[in-house]
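Please decode residue identities from the backbone states below.
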């Protein structure tokens, strides 16, 4: 359990890093601290109000995420160049498998955090399964569309080296000299998605630690763990090259360990214990 809590808190710190990087203040430590404190303070407020409040807030703001996303998609259609997709499968099988693992590690393996929410707040197994797979399909579909648009509009080389291809796509949108600077809307979308992602990681951390410590109220842990999360955000990625090296060489086995193998091992152990208890009762 402590392993999961440490991973969730670390992931919350990683999410706090992304906003200063998007605001291009990565080299200014004071501004990084400000944006991390600003984000974690909003996260703490949401977590203290409870997971139901966070979920309802996400439900309300979901259309405000979808509408700008659709504007981004349809506005980039005139700049699409289909020749950017050629040649297909030129790099071989191994890079494709690696790309699939990277995509899966981002879209699916991190959903292990939802196991701290679903059992306590969603009673029906069918509802849990439907929500899990629906969310996976929607999130994966959005990522596929953004990656595809990045290649079709920006080209393969620029998409590969760009830190935020979706932001670069938004910067290139210009429709009839009146629809400009849409990257601001993209930044808002980015902030909203990071907020809810950080809130889930943070809620899983504080609620899990409260259960271990047998506390009646997890809210007393929100402030001290928030300070730790801010500290993580300042040291987890010293620079962008370090982040890119981590994502390329370490993230895949790391996510496979805590998102697949470790939960699978716990599931197998649980099944064995149930069968062993059933045999002893007989």
């Amino acid at each position: 359990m402590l392993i999961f809590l440490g991973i969730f808190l670390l992931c919350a710190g990683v999410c706090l890093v992304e906003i200063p990087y998007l605001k291009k203040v990565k080299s200014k430590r004071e501004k990084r601290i400000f944006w991390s404190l600003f984000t974690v303070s909003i996260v703490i407020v949401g977590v203290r109000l409870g997971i139901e409040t966070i979920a309802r807030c996400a439900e309300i703001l979901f259309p405000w995420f979808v509408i700008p996303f659709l504007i981004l998609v349809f506005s980039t259609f005139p700049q699409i160049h289909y020749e950017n997709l050629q040649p297909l499968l030129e790099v071989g099988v191994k890079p494709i498998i690696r790309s699939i693992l990277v995509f899966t590690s981002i879209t699916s393996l991190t959903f292990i955090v939802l196991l701290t929410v679903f059992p306590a707040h969603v009673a029906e197994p069918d509802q849990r399964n439907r929500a899990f797979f629906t969310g996976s399909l929607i999130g994966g579909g959005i990522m596929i569309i953004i990656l595809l648009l990045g290649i079709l509009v920006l080209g393969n080389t620029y998409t590969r080296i760009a830190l935020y291809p979706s932001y670069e796509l938004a910067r290139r949108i210009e429709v009839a000299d009146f629809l400009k600077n849409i990257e601001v809307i993209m930044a808002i979308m980015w902030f909203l998605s990071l907020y809810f992602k950080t809130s889930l990681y943070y809620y899983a951390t504080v609620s899990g630690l409260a259960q271990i410590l047998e506390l009646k109220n997890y809210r007393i842990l929100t402030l001290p763990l928030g300070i730790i999360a801010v500290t993580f955000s300042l040291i987890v990625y010293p620079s962008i090259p370090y982040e890119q090296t981590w994502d390329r060489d370490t993230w895949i086995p790391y996510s496979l360990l805590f998102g697949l193998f470790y939960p699978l091992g716990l599931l197998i152990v649980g099944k064995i214990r149930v069968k062993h208890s059933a045999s002893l009762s007989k």
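Observation: The chain has a mean pLDDT of 78.
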